[in-house]
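tool=predict chain=A
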Amino acid sequence: MQVARVTAVTQPEAIRFGTNKIRVKLFFTIVLLVFDFIAATAQTPHGKNFNMDCVQCHTSAEWIVDQSNLTFNHNNTHFTLKGQHLQVKCRACHPTLVFPEAKTECYSCHLDMHQQTVGNECSRCHNSSTWIIPNVRNIHLQSRFPLVGAHLSADCNKCHISSSKLQFEPISIDCYDCHRDKYLATNQPNHQQSGYSTNCIECHKQQSYEWTASGFNHDFFPLTGGHTTNCKLCHGEGKFEKLSSVCVDCHQSDYNKATNPNHTLSKFPTACNDCHTTSPEWKPASYKQHDSESFPIYSGKHKGEWNNCTDCHKQKGNYSSYTCIDCHEHSQTRMDKKHDGERDYSYNSNACLTCHPRGNTD
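tool=predict ok
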């Protein structure tokens, strides 16, 4: 039987051994504290205050992000991903991985091919699906010069001479700046000699596809009813300027030969539109000034109580003569009773209008 040999350790050796053990323990404690401090104070690559859960983009297998498996919803940000932006790599817009630093303006990622000729708001013309402009007309409707009529089918390059370089500098919208040659070359009528306005839309309709006929703006003398006839009836031999717009200057012969009623004998006004409209062409006629200048027949108690002028004007061709008693009952017994106590009343008087100028009972 062997007896275990016990080696005696002197007191100095025990103290030295205990001291080393404490030193080792202290060393590891300090190392752990350092790692804890580093871990607690280290910045993520995504910047300060980034508190999104890592699993929305990363997996436990590797840190490389697979965009097809992202659970992060970009619609919750200030920039919704649509169209081509759905296919873009994250690092293309977030090169620093500090996501809040990404800009949302188009020009911060896309080179301005238009050289600041159309501004920075790309969405006015483009969308996130394609750079191709699908509807130029709608874009122009929001501009200073909407495309209508012949301008809708015009060649863009004729107005935007730098369009081949994708540059669209602001250009003049004055008609004359583009159509000066046409203005100077026109001789029927001669625009320059006649002193016509260089503002084309005063005479020509912007919505039209031609310069003449339906493309002419005749608003200064509306062509309605009987006036929508052959232009040559008024503009014989190509005369387009200095024509009178006074009715009788064209219709004097019509006025002179009118017999029912006789305009000349009755001394009717020569302002045809006092009684007539442009309906082909003279009938029906109505003297609308009758209420204001004479006696109310289109309003008041006499409205709808007559059919023809001759109902009141019994003398043929004489429209200055008329009496009330030709239409109204004139029984002396009834009239005396109604006018009892009225001063200056006389049954034999025809001057009804002296007391009844508007045809009212009172």
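Confidence is low (pLDDT under 50) at residues 1-9. The two ends are 158 Å apart (CA to CA).
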